Amino acid sequence: MKVRRSDRLIDMTRYLLERPHTLISLTFFAERYESAKSSISEDLAIIKRTFKYRGIGILETIPGAAGGAQFIPSISEQEARAFIEDMTNELSQEDRLLPGGYVYLSDLLGRPDVLRQVGRVIAREYVDQQIDAVMTVATKGVPIAQSVSSYLNVPFVIVRRDSKITEGSTVSVNYVSGSSERIEKMELSKRSLPRGSNVLVVDDFMKGGGTVNGMKSMIEEFDSKLVGITVFAEAAFSGRRVIDEYTSLLKVDQVNTIDKTISVSPGNYLDKVFKND
Amino acid sequence: MKVRRSDRLIDMTRYLLERPHTLISLTFFAERYESAKSSISEDLAIIKRTFKYRGIGILETIPGAAGGAQFIPSISEQEARAFIEDMTNELSQEDRLLPGGYVYLSDLLGRPDVLRQVGRVIAREYVDQQIDAVMTVATKGVPIAQSVSSYLNVPFVIVRRDSKITEGSTVSVNYVSGSSERIEKMELSKRSLPRGSNVLVVDDFMKGGGTVNGMKSMIEEFDSKLVGITVFAEAAFSGRRVIDEYTSLLKVDQVNTIDKTISVSPGNYLDKVFKND
């Protein structure tokens, strides 16, 4: 059955959104809808225009009968800024304050709407870079890694402080916890990351950077390359950070456990990502 | 600027897909596109038809000027069956065999395409039930919980065997690990689950059911209600399971560590969910 344009547009939109960074050929769509390639090309041009206008992302189209299209998720500066401002307000709520000056984040990192935006925002930063895997450390980094991985359409791997029998053989590295100066160990399943991968590191919170630095060593152990580091929130840190090149969506400037106040501001993300736009 | 139908269909499709189980009013769409409500109603009817025909899900439309639409993600029996068969083949690969008869799953549970389908499949089972939160235990259940939570559009909560300072006050329960008969402890942040929640429990793997039983006790501690239990894979278990009512996508029937063979078959999901369709 030949499919009408309106039906094609709806199904193609869904199909492309679910498969970011994947080239779908004109031939595939033409067969799926029993329609001429010229009609499919016109459909793709309409989708491209709407995706751009609505800030959904970029539809890269490759012209010609052998061509096709791939969807590159993105986010506009305006939407990214609004999201980061929202999160700044959320994090500033004084009831998030925990003993030791930590900030409660688990509710936010369990909300699908928040995770969707975190994923879009972080994926936007690396849109022009080759990334083969997203890496994080268990447990609270996992939701962030998963969301970013879905927008980049690459797998994510979880480094663990306690390896389980269900991981098989692992590679372990020692690292110095930046805040406590203690030596810790982290492990990654040997088969989870192919040698020579380009790896993006994400995490929920960074203080001294020790954990992230551990992941950096882990990436070296796998003969792989660190492409970038992005964290949801960084804490103000008085000592010397072991990591100097990173991106943060949010910055927890000051935590006062006596007055019970938290002061949060946007991290360096907006400046880094939209500076040259 | 009045928006053309084709542009509306594309943007509405995206907008609805990103906000499952959320009623979007006709008024909202009419203002967004500066179009008449009657045109929006026609658009929604087209989207509804395509979503149904392609097995994407159900678009529930509420007629009248005060009406709107909400997207209920679903999956066809055919697509669910194909996915489960795919996973059966994946899991049967002998190189997944780990010492102790465990099966390596981490690669699958780090792949965005697999997680998308796991989420759709599990969400389909509970489409007619009220669910307020998805619960799992760290670490490997997290990706499953997150994906299900995104299709049900409710938050997920992570029970931990080792609570961290960043969780704040926790409630802890003891449980008997079904396979080893050891007494273990799990904890959940006090503020992560409101009293009286309807909770869906998901996990990656179930042997004796001890961990899942622990989560059941946890739900009681929060004066909440267990709605259902669904696991990605269950293992054949010779003892008496502490949990008898659950759904599994896959069943690991036999693991032979000497011959290095794994025998995997579909779990009870397809029978339970599509029996009455």
UniProtKB/TrEMBL annotation, chains A, B:
Residues 4-73 form the Bacterial purine repressor N-terminal domain. The keyword Transcription regulation applies. It comes from the Bacteria. InterPro entries: PRTase-like (IPR029057), PRTase_dom (IPR000836), Pur/Pyrimidine_PRTase (IPR050118), PuR_N (IPR015265), PurR_Bsub (IPR010078), WH-like_DNA-bd_sf (IPR036388), WH_DNA-bd_sf (IPR036390). Keywords: DNA-binding, Transcription, Transcription regulation. Residues 112-253 form the Phosphoribosyltransferase domain. GO terms for molecular function: DNA binding. The keyword Metal-binding does not apply. GO terms for biological process: negative regulation of DNA-templated transcription; negative regulation of purine nucleobase metabolic process. Homodimer. PANTHER family: HYPOXANTHINE/GUANINE PHOSPHORIBOSYLTRANSFERASE, PUR OPERON REPRESSOR. Belongs to the purine/pyrimidine phosphoribosyltransferase family. PurR subfamily. This is Pur operon repressor. It comes from Ligilactobacillus ceti DSM 22408.
